[in-house]
Amino acid sequence: MTRTIIEGGFIATVDQGGTEHATGHVVIDGGIITAVGAGAAPDRDGAKVVDATGCLVTPGLVNTHHHLYQWLTRGYSQDSILFDWLTALYPLWSRIDADLTAAGAAGAMAVLARSGCTTVGDHHYVFPQGSGDIVGGLVQSASRIGVRLHATRGSMDLGASQGGLPPDFAIETTDAALAASQEAVERHHDPAFGSLVQIAIAPCSPFSVTADLLRESAVLARSLGVRLHTHASETAEEDAYCAERFGMTPTQYLEDLGWLGDDVWMAHGVHLDAAAIARYAATGTGVAHCPSSNGRLAAGIAPVRDLLRAGVPVGLGVDGAASNESGQLGVEIREAVLMNRLRTGADSFSVRDALRIATIGGARVLGRDAELGSLEPGKVADVAVWRVDGVEHAGILDPVAALGLGALPPLHRLFVGGRAIVEEGTLTSAEEPVIAEEVAAASRALAARL
Ligand code: ZN
Fold it and tell me: How far, in Å, is the centroid of ligand 1 from the Cα of 243?
C-alpha cells in the first residue's frame, strides 16, 4: 500500500485534548496513521497527495447500533410507538433470509459509508428456520462495501405465548440461540488490531428474551472474550413491562443477570434515572445514542449530557432503517446536537461533543478506542474528508459547525484502513446503481412473502 498524505484541510483529531489544526496534514502508511500535524507534511517522497483544501478532516465515524436487514423495511408503520411498530413488523421480518439480508445490508452500508461511517455496528436478532447463513451474508456485504463490521449475533426466545412481545413464529429456542451465537463468534470474530470483522453476542431486549438466555449469553460472551449488546431503557412501555413482570427497572433487571460491565453496551438508554446512570458509570457500561430513531418512535431523549458527565461511554447509532429511514450516521451528529439541547439546554451539548461521541466515543463503546476513533499516529487510518467549500458551507465560520449544524457535507474521500471507499461523494468500492436495484428487488420480494 502506498503512502498517502492528506493535506491542506482543517484537521479535527478528536484526540484526548481535542487538538485541531486550521490547516494540517494526516499521513497514512500501510493502513496506519503515521503522522498528524499543522501545515504541510514534512516528508513527501513517493507519497500520493490528497489535496484537502476546503475540507474538514475527521476520524471515520463509528456506528454503534443498527439493524442492517431493516433496510428492506423502510417506510412501514410510520406513526407508531415502539411496541406497536415492532408488532406490525415482526411478521415481515420473520420472512427474511440470508440473501435478502445481504442485499439490504449492502444498501444500508453504502449509505453509511456515504455519510462518513467507517465502522458499522449491527444487531441482527431475527433468524427464521431455514434462512441460511445470515451472519455470513452480513460479513460478505461489509467486505463488498469495504467497511469495518461489528456484527452482533442477536436472538429472541420469549414469544407471545410466554409473555414476550414477538409472536412465537419469530423466535428461536434458548439452546439454538446460544449455539448459533457461539458458532458466529468462532467462525467470524477476529480480535486482531485493526481487524475488519468482530462479533458480539446480543439477545434482543428484556421483553423478547428470557432471563435464562440473557444470563447464559453473558456467561458465553465472557468465556469467548467478546462483548455483549442489547436494547435497554428505550421506552416508557419497557419500564412498565419490567416493573410489572420483574418488579425492577430494566437496569436493575439486567444488572441482576450479569449484564452491566465494561464489556457491555446498551442501545438507547433513554429512560435512565440518576440511579441507573450511576450504575452504568460505576460499571463502565456503554450506551449507543440513537437520536433519530428515538424521535421517530417518540421514545424520548436520552440524557447524554448526564451520561457523559458521569463518565459513561457513549457512542452514536443510526438504529435500524425501519425506525430511521435516513440511515446516515453523519446526519445523527446534527440530530444529537438538536435533541440533547431540547432536553438540557443550548450550552449543554456542543458540535464537538457530538463529533466526539460519533468517533472516539463509539470506538470506546465497542472496546476499540486504542485502534479507532481519533486521528493519532499508530491508529488505524479510518479517515473522513468532508468538503465544506461547496454551496452548502462556503464561508461558514467553523468547519466543525458545518458538520454538526449544517447540511451533511459531501465526502471528498473516506478511508477505511487507508483504502479510499468513497471518492468525490460516490462509493468506489461497489456500484451504487447496482446496489439500489438489488435493494429494490429484495424489498419487493420480502413484501411479497407476507
Ligand atoms: Zn435497535
Answer: 21
> Residues 13, 130: one domain?
no
**Pick from 63, 65, 139, 138: which is nearest to 96 by CA?**
138
Quick one: 54 and 69 in the same domain?
A: no
Does residue 205 lie in a domain region?
A: yes
Angstrom distance (rounded) from CA 211 to CA 215: 6
pLDDT band at 258 (very low <50, low <70, confident <90, very high): very high
Residue 84 CA, ligand 1 centroid: distance in Å: 15
User: Does one domain contain both 281 and 231?
Assistant: yes
Does residue 65 share a domain with residue 54?
no
How many domains, in total, are found in the chain? 2
Inside any domain, residue 316: yes
Task: Assess whether 188 and 318 both reside in one domain.
Answer: yes
Same domain, 54 and 96: no
Q: Is the pLDDT of residue 1 over 70?
A: no
Distance 445 CA to ligand 1 centre (A): 23
- Indicate which CATH number applies to the domain containing 176: 3.20.20.140
pTM for this model (two decimals): 0.98
Tell how far the Cα of 66 is from the centroid of ligand 1, in angstroms.
6
Question: Which residues fall inside 5 Å of ion ligand 1, going by CB?
Answer: 267, 319
pLDDT tens, position by position, 333-345 = 999 999 999 999 9
Reduced to 3 states (helix: H, G, I; strand: E, B; else coil), residue 186 is: helix
Cα 213 to ligand 1 centre (Å)? 18
Domain-located, residue 303:
yes
Whether 51 contacts 20, CB under 8 Å: no
Distance 320 CA to ligand 1 centre (A): 6
Q: What average pLDDT score do residues 93-101 get?
A: 97
Q: What is the pLDDT of residues 301-356, one digit of tens each?
A: 999 999 999 999 999 999 999 999 999 999 999 999 999 999 999 999 999 999 99
- Residue at 335: amino acid letter: E
Distance 318 CA to ligand 1 centre (A): 9
C-alpha span between 383 and 282 (Å, rounded)? 32
Among residues 365, 393, 417, the one where a domain terminates is 365
Q: Which three cell numbers stand for residue 120?
A: 458499522
**52 Cα–ligand 1 center, Å:** 35
48 and 184 both lie in a single domain: no
Q: How far is the CA of 9 from the centre of ligand 1 (A)?
A: 35
Res 153 pLDDT > 80: yes
Q: How far, in Å, from the CA of 17 to the mean position of ligand 1? A: 32
Residue 168 CB burial class (10 angstroms; 0-12, 13-18, ≥19)? exposed
Query: Which residue range forms the structural domain that includes residue 271?
Result: 61-365
Cα–Cα distance, 232 to 245 (Å, whole number): 15
CATH number of the domain residue 422 falls in: 2.30.40.10
**Distance between CA 442 and CA 440 in Å, rounded?**
6
Is there a domain that residue 442 lies in? Answer: no
Cα(284) to ligand 1 centroid in Å equals 21
Residue 247 alpha carbon to ligand 1 centre in Å: 24
